[in-house]
Each structure stands twice: as C-alpha cells, then as structure tokens.
Amino acid sequence: MVSEDNFKFKEIEIPSPGEGEFLVKNLYLSFDPAQRGWMDDKKSYVPPVQIGEVMRAGSVAQVVDSNHSDFKAGDIVQGTFGWQDYAVTNGEGILTASLVSSKFPITAPLSIFGITGLTAYFGLLDIGKPKEGDVVLVSGAAGATGSVVGQIAKLKGCKVIGVAGGARKCKWLTEEANFDAAIDYQTANLNEVLEELCPEGVDIVFDNVGGEFLNTALLRIAQNARLVICGAIAGYNEENPLPGPSNYRTLITLRAKMEGFIVLDYKEQFPKAIKELAKWVSEGKIIYQEDIQQGLENAPKTLTRLYSGKNFGKQILQIAEPE
Ligand SMILES: NC(=O)c1ccc[n+]([C@@H]2O[C@H](COP(=O)([O-])OP(=O)(O)OC[C@H]3O[C@@H](n4cnc5c(N)ncnc54)[C@H](OP(=O)(O)O)[C@@H]3O)[C@@H](O)[C@H]2O)c1
Fold first, then answer.
1. Which of 8, 44, 146, 244 could cross-link to 141 by cystine, CB 3.0-4.6 Å?
2. Maximum distance among all alpha carbons in the chain?
3. Rounded to whole angstroms, how far apart are CA atoms 162 and 169?
C-alpha cells in the first residue's frame, strides 16, 4: 500500500523560464488511481516515475512568467506539472483551460472534462457500445469515472446498476445521479442481488475494480455481453497480481467479449467529447462531484484516499489560489 513514507519534501529555488519557455504556478492537482502503477518500476503505457523524481500528476496551473509567444502571464493552463508548486515548460502538450468555457469551474478540466470524464465517455461509447434497453453494470460507480459512465448509459436508454462502497455513495447514485439501482458491495451478496435485479443478465460490464467484482460479474453476463476493462483498483496495491477470474468460461458459452483500453489513445477526439460532455452538463443531464482537499503537504495522504474509498467524486488537491 502506497504511504506517506514513500515521499520526501524538498525545497529548491523557483526555476526561471528560458527562451521559448514559461513558468507556471500549480493551483489544483489531479489524483488518479493509475499513479500507483506509475510508481512501479515496470514497463507500462508511460515510463515509471523514478526514485527522486517529482511525482507525476496532471494539474491546472497559472502562467506567472513567460518567454513563449502562445502563453502569457495570468493564463490558466492544464498539463502534467507534478507534485510541485512551480514548473517550467516549453508548452508541449499544454492546453489552455479556456478550451472548455469559462462558465465551468476552474477544476472541471481535471474532472468531468479531464481524464476521468473522457475515460467514461470513450470506454462506454466506443468499447461498450450501448444500445437502448441494455443492462449496464458499473463498478467504482460513485467515483469520478464510474458516475459519468452510468449517467451516459442512462442518456443512451440503458438500465444502469452501480456497485459502490457504503450506503452514502449508493444513496447518491440512485437519488442524485439517476442510476436505476445501486449495490453496496461491502454488505450485499453481489451475485444474488444481480440475479434479482436483472435475471436476463448484464449486457455491459464497465469494470473499474477487477478482483472479486469481475469474477462475480462474469457469472451474470448476458449473451454477447461486452466487458469494458477500464481499471483494476482492487489489485493496484497488491504485491502479487490478484488471481485471474475463474468464471471466465461464460465468455465462451455466451459469446461475450472482454476488452481493455487506454483513454490517451483517443486524444485526437478529446475536443469533440468535451463539447458533448459540456452540453450534457449545461443541460443538467450529467452531474459530477469533486472532492477537493487542501495543501501540497497533504499530497501523499490525498493519494491514499483513492485506495481506501475515502474520496467521494474526483479527487483533487488545491495548492494555491489563482491570482
Ligand atoms: N483505462 C484508462 O484509460 C483509465 C483512465 C482513467 C482511470 N482509469 C481507471 O478507472 C478507475 C476509476 O478511477 P477514478 O479516477 O475515477 O477513481 P475513483 O473511482 O474516483 O476513486 C477510486 C474508487 O475506487 C474504489 N476502490 C478503491 N479500492 C478498492 C478496492 N480494493 N476494491 C473495490 N473498490 C475500490 C473506491 O470506491 P468505493 O468507496 O466505492 O469502494 C474509490 O473511491 C481506476 O481503476 C482507474 O485506474 C482507467
């Protein structure tokens, strides 16, 4: 389990931007379960963070000093600036947060219009391919990704069942986020409740958790089901991989498909997706929650909230106010 002992604070001079560079002050940091994977010295879709390096993280920041023609002091930008107060960049891969619209909160590019909102959008629509009347089962349902998956599925005419930890999260899913049903995996027998709620089976499983959830979901799939493998947080802090799902033979008998994806592969289509998500949010068809903690000194503790289910909505840390 990742802990505060894995990190060290260091004070250094604020760097100065060179020719074609600019200096940003970090305002809000994004916390993502994948950060635990980036700390493993293993080959993955991004290189591991090395010991002694600044912990990688997405953030919203403000330009404070610029020698770059496209960015000026005061601009709000979005990039991967890490767990630090200031960063220098040459602007590569940096977006201006005004891409969406100033009518949304400054943190929206980290939540609903950020990686988690986009993961929900592409994972469900492109891999899950929902059809009207489909039954959709979502794990990690009250989280940043899961809650958006369920609401998009409802917009597509599906019946949506969410699985989350605790009564408070489950109540929010059915009373606020428009889910048809919510199951508290900490107290319920998932297999039995699913049999009752959808005896014909589940057409789409959107899995953020893996482990036991996935194994049980495999027992309850319908003919031609699609299992969208988005995340496997139940195993991210395990020393050894969790056992594979022993119930996988239903994939054969029910001609089902299980497929993983990485949202970054959809980069070219992000602007189109953000536009559609913004429309849904403006029309009140999608709601989203942000869980905003305070202070850079709390970065390690904030990361651990994701793996204990303490976060309720997109986990963010505010480390400064915009000027
Ligand atoms: N494929 C991609 O490109 C991509 C991109 C972004 C995110 N993801 C994945 O999407 C998933 C959700 O990420 P997020 O940023 O939206 O986080 P999140 O759902 O807002 O927060 C994580 C949640 O996971 C649940 N959880 C933690 N440990 C668990 C465990 N041992 N067993 C079951 N549930 C556990 C907790 O909810 P409860 O309180 O309900 O247990 C916690 O609140 C993660 O697996 C992440 O890696 C994938």
1. 146
2. 65
3. 10
Strands 95-96 and 59-66 come out as: unpaired
Pairing of strands 181-184, 159-164: parallel
d(CA 185, CA 138): 12
Residue with tokens 């201006």: 96
Distance CA 181, CA 175 (A): 10
Pocket test for ligand 1, best of 208, 263, 303 (most atoms within 8 A of CB): 208
Q: Are 234 and 214 in contact (CB under 8 A)?
A: no
The answer to whether the CB of 25 falls within 8 A of the CB of 320 is yes
Report the predicted TM-score, pTM, of the whole model to 2 decimal places.
Answer: 0.97
Beta carbons within 8 Å of 236's beta carbon, 6+ residues apart? 33, 36, 37, 307
Kindly report the length of the chain. Answer: 323
Q: Is the CB of 110 under 6 A from ligand 1?
A: no
CA of 306 to the centre of ligand 1 (A): 7
Structure tokens at 7: 């990190």
| Cα within 13 Å of Cα(147), Cβ side | 25
Question: Is the pLDDT confidence value at 133 over 90?
Answer: yes
| Per-residue model confidence (pLDDT) at position 97 | 60
Tokens of residue 121, six digits: 């959008």
Take residue 302 and report the two structure tokens written for it: 């904030």
112 CB near ligand 1 (under 6 Å): no
Q: Which of 206, 233, 264, 267 should be mutated for ligand 1, with most atoms under 8 A from CB? A: 233
- pLDDT given for residue 139 in this prediction: 98
pLDDT of 150 reads 98
Q: How far apart are CA 320 and CA 106, in angstroms?
A: 12
* pLDDT higher than threshold 90 for residue 96: no
CA of 261, closest atom in ligand 1 = 1
Average pLDDT over residues 154-161: 98
